[in-house]
Amino acid sequence: MRKSLMLLTAVTVVATPALAQLNTLRQNDVAEAAKNNPSIVAEYGGAETGARAAYVNNIGRRVAGQSGTANAGQAYHFTTLNSPVENAFSVPGGYVYITRQLMGLMGDEAELAFVLGHETGHIAADHSRTRQKASSRNSILSVLGAIVGGVIGNNPFGSLISQGLQRYGQLSTLSFSRQQEYEADQLGIRYIAQAGYDPTAGATMLDALTRSAALEARVQGKAGRSTPEWASTHPLSENRSAQARQLAAQFARAGGGMRNRDAFLAQLNGVRVDDDPAQGIVEGQTFTHPDLRLQFIIPAGFQMSNSADAVTIEGSSGKAQFSTGRYDGNMQAYVAQVLQGLTGGQTQIQMSPIQQTRVNGIPAVYSIGRAQTDNGVVDVSVFAYQWSATQAYHFVMLTQGGQGIAPFQSMVGSLRRITPAEAAAIRPRVINVYSVRAGDSVQSLAKRMAYRDFQIDRFLSLNNLQANSRLSPGTRVKLVTYELRR
Ligand SMILES: [Zn+2]
Q1: Which of 233, 254, 273 is the last residue of a domain?
Q2: How many whole angstroms from 473 Cα to the centroid of ligand 1?
Q3: Residue 304: what are its φ and ψ, rounded to 5°?
Q4: Tens digit of pLDDT for each residue in 41-79?
Q5: What range defines the domain where residue 410 resides?
Q6: Under 8 Å between Cβ of 346 and 357
C-alpha cells in the first residue's frame, strides 16, 4: 500500500510540472485570516456545526495533508457556510470555505475532496498575491461598469458598498486567472489522488457545476437570479473539465480509488438548499422575509442575491441594496447614518432635502444625491421606511447621473407587509436522499421536486441523469423537497 503510493507520487512529479507551493503559511496571513474569519462567517449566513461540518473538516484535512504545507492538519481550517450561494473560496492564511448550496451539487465524497483540494491549492500556491494585482487593474473600468460589475478597487464608488457594509465581496468576487484555476485544479486532483480518491472526481465535479450554471441560465431567462458565484469567480468551461479529465488520466488510480458516495449521501441528507427562510427567500423577482413579515419586488431585468445582512440588486442601469440599521425614531438621523456608513465619510455627496411619502401605508422618506467622480456623475439615493417605532429599513441605490431613483421606482413602491398566513406558507427546501423503488421513473420522481418550474431539468441536473435514464431499484438519488419549519 505504502509502496504503491510512493510510486504514484513519483509518477505525478514526472507527469505534471512541479508547481511552486508554500512550505509554511505566512504569519501575517494567518493572523489576518483568523481575525477576518468571524466576519466572513457572519456575512455568509453563519457556520454549520455538528456532524456534517465535522465531516467536511475531516475530508479537508485529509486532502490538505497532501499539500506539502508544514503541519497541514493544524494550518488549514475548513468551514461549511449556511449560504444559498453555490460557492467555495479560500483566504491566504489557511481558511477554506464551502457553502451548503455547493455541497448539494456534489455526488460523492471524492467530489467534495476535489473542491476542498482545489481551494487548498490556491492557498498553497500563493495565488492571492497575483490576484490582488489583477484587481487594481480592473478598477480602471468605468464607474457604472465598476458598480454594476461589483468590482472593488481604488475607485471610490466601486468601494462604496464594500466599505459601508463591511463586505467581503472582494474575496468572493475577484477572479483568479485562467492559469491559476488550471493550477488549482491540477493541485486538487493531485491531492485527492494521493489521498486515495478517484482523481476523475475533479472532472465530474466541474461537470456538475457546468450543468448547474447552464440550468441556472435557463431558469434565469424566465425568473431572474444571480449567476452562481463559483461560475463567476472560477471560470468554467467544457475546456476546464476536459483538462481535468486529462490531468486525472495521468494517475494510475484514474477511474478507481475511493468515491465514498454512500458516506457522503448520508451526511448530505437533510442539508438545506436555496434560501434559509430565517434570512429571507428569493423567488424570481420577489424577496420575502417571513420572520420580518416583509416583501418587495425588483424590476424585470435585475437580479438579486441575498446575504445574511443585505439583499443586493443588480442590473445594467444600476445597483441597489436593501438593508437595515440602528433606528431611534428619527428618520433624518437614520438616512444620515446610512450615507455615513456608505461612504465612511470619505466621499462628498450633495443630497437633496429629505422628502416624505407613504408606501403601501408605511411612512417613508427619501433623498437623492449626486457625486462627481473621475469617471463621471453618479446618483446615490436612499429610500427609507419607518417600519415600526423601533425598526426602519432602507434601499440604497446607485444609478447613472440624472437617473435618480427612476430605474428602481417600482421596487421602492413595492415594499409591503405580508400576512401571517403568507409568512407561514414559506417553507425551506432540503436535499432528500431517496432510494429508488420499483415503478419509479425520472418523471415520477421529478414531480416531487419542490419547485414550481423546471422540475425534470432540475432533477436530471442534480443527479447527472438523462431524460431517458432507467432508474434501477435501490439506486440512491437526490431530491429537493420542502422541509416543515419548526
Ligand atoms: Zn479556484
Answers
A1: 273
A2: 37
A3: -130, 140
A4: 988 889 999 999 999 999 999 999 999 999 998 999 999
A5: 277-423
A6: no
My answer on whether 307 and 217 are in the same domain is no
Q: Report DSSP letters for 23-83, one per residue.
A: SS--HHHHHHHHHHHHHHHHHTT-B--SHHHHHHHHHHHHHHTTS--TTHHHH-EEEEE--
191 in the same domain as 212: yes
Q: Are strands 77-81 and 95-99 parallel, antiparallel or unpaired?
A: parallel
406 is written with which cell numbers?
Answer: 427612476
Whole-number Å distance, alpha carbon 245 to ligand 1 midpoint, is 17
> How many domains does the chain contain in total?
3
Do 246 and 331 lie in one domain? The reply is no
Spacing, Cα 184 to ligand 1 middle (Å): 6
pTM: 0.76
pLDDT at 235: 57
Domain boundary among 222, 251, 273: 273
Are 163 and 240 in the same domain? yes
Query: Rounded to the nearest 5°, which phi and psi values hold at 99?
Result: -90, 155
Over residues 270-306, the pLDDT tens digits come to 999 998 888 888 888 999 999 999 999 999 988 888 7
**What is the Å distance from ligand 1's center to 388 Cα?**
44
Q: How far is the CA of 26 from the centre of ligand 1 (A)?
A: 20
Mean pLDDT of the chain: 83
Q: Are both 285 and 336 inside the same structural domain?
A: yes
Ligand 1 centroid to Cα of residue 211, in Å, is 18
Residues 409 and 433 in one domain: no
Distance from Cα 177 to the centre of ligand 1, integer Å: 9
For residue 474, what is the domain's CATH number?
Answer: 3.10.350.10
Q: Which residue is it, cell 473538516?
A: 57
Q: How far is the CA of 230 from the centre of ligand 1 (A)?
A: 8
The 10s digit of each residue's pLDDT in 227-272 is 554 555 555 666 888 999 999 999 987 778 999 999 999 999 999 9
Q: Please, where are the H alpha helices in 223-362? A: 229-233, 238-249, 261-268, 331-343
